[in-house]
Amino acid sequence: MERSQERDGGEGVAGREPDGAGLRLRREIGLWSAVSLIAGCMIGSGIFMSPQGVLVYVGSPGASLVVWAVCGLLAMMGALCYAELGALVPKSGGEYAYILQIFGSLPAFLVIYTFVLLVRPAAIAAVSLSFAEYAVAPFYPGCSSMPQAVLKAVAAICILLLTLVNCWSSRLATMLMNVCTVAKVFSLLVIVGGGAVVLGQGRGYTEAFLFAFHNTTQQAGRIGMAFYQGLWSFDGWNNVNYVLEELKNPKQNLVWALMIAIPLVTSLYLLVNISYLLVLSPNELLSSDAMAVSWGNQVLGDWAWLVPLAVTLSTLGSTNGTFFGGSRVCYVAAREGHMPQLLSMVHVHRLTPTPALMFTAAVALVLVIPGNFSTIVNFLSFLGWITYGTTISCLLYLRMKKNLPRPYKVCTEERKTVQPCP
Predict the structure, then answer these.
(1) Which residues, other chains included, contact 90 with Cβ-Cβ below 8 Å and sequence gap of 6+?
(2) How far apart are CA 409 and CA 76, in angstroms?
């Protein structure tokens, strides 16, 4: 191990510094790997489990589709703000790096300890528990509840295996993300295609669209809970900001990755929800805790086992992406002196932040032991969106107080979303 030293050298510098003073992480993440990282983290267990929650809270199919579309728009707006911050502060670490640069050490210190000790390990623990539930399900056919000890053991094995992969090679970790992302996008396309076939055969529940907004709730609290469920499925849109120093040509690829991945995921989510509404009856929609499994039983027949497999791969890829980004935040905080210096070290031969990866894994394992999926998700979402709001306030502060050159700027001109600045 050797401690990483921050340098302001040109892009593409990798490995040992020219003066031999220290190590840095390689720039090995290209545009499509960045797209895969964003989409892979966003498409987790949410789209397979959350649609029922959104529908229950808003009360009508049409309103549920509006909620999903608005959640995608909110994610896109937040991501574009993060892209401008990434261009102004071209460092890994995401929220921590931006708050440290703009508001100083104390707010950054509070954010990083919340993030490193709670937010990212909680996300890893939650998605790994979801992975365990679907991975174990084929071994307990017909059981409504599975042994908690088995679920937690499988979740722990998942975390340990991903620790090994990420410690061994950053390239291997990105390859795993790419493979899982292709698998999960393909599985969503299968659901979309299956819905189109059912509609073409005239077997769909089209009355859901004839009375699309019937019984829509007027209660602000229930609408808020619906957004709460939907936004969980979009979480992960900011993961590429955590690994900005490993992104090739970051000033260009950061924005392009966001503008490709988020609209892609939003479109898939809307089409998948339409497929659910076409295939499943109103009672099935309201009673199913895992819509994708119910959909598979209706459409795929003997091939219904593909759905749990797809969800397993989806959650594995999402956990890996969260692990990959979360460990980099820990690494950057240690490099800045807000965490023990040991966590800023990089493996001499592998050039991976091994201590930070092992620390993140250890905290996630601790949270797996007493926790369950829903409790962790509720806790995580509350902390996460407070942090996102604080980070976006950094951009507002810079707009009002600082006149800095911006390679990219989120603008409000008609028909322009992101423009290069002179």
Answers:
(1) 244, 245, 250, 251
(2) 14
Low-confidence ranges of the chain (pLDDT < 70): 1-25, 45, 49-50, 141-145, 207-208, 210-212, 288-290, 371-382, 404-422
DSSP 1: -
Which residues does 37 contact at the CB level (< 8 Å), separation at least 6?
Answer: 29, 174, 177, 239, 240, 243, 257, 321, 324, 325
Q: List the one residue out of 260, 244, 248, 380 whose CA is nearest residue 324.
A: 244
Instruction: Name the residue among 161, 137, 163 with its Cα closest to residue 150.
Output: 137
Burial group, residue 263, by CB count within 10 angstroms (0-12, 13-18, 19+): middle
Residue 225 is encoded by which pair of tokens?
Answer: 């809970």
This prediction's pTM? 0.76
Q: What is the pLDDT of residues 56-112, one digit of tens each?
A: 888 888 888 999 999 999 888 888 888 888 888 888 778 888 888 888 888 888 888
Q: By three-state DSSP, how is residue 419 classified?
A: strand
C-alpha count within 13 angstroms, C-beta hemisphere, residue 199: 16
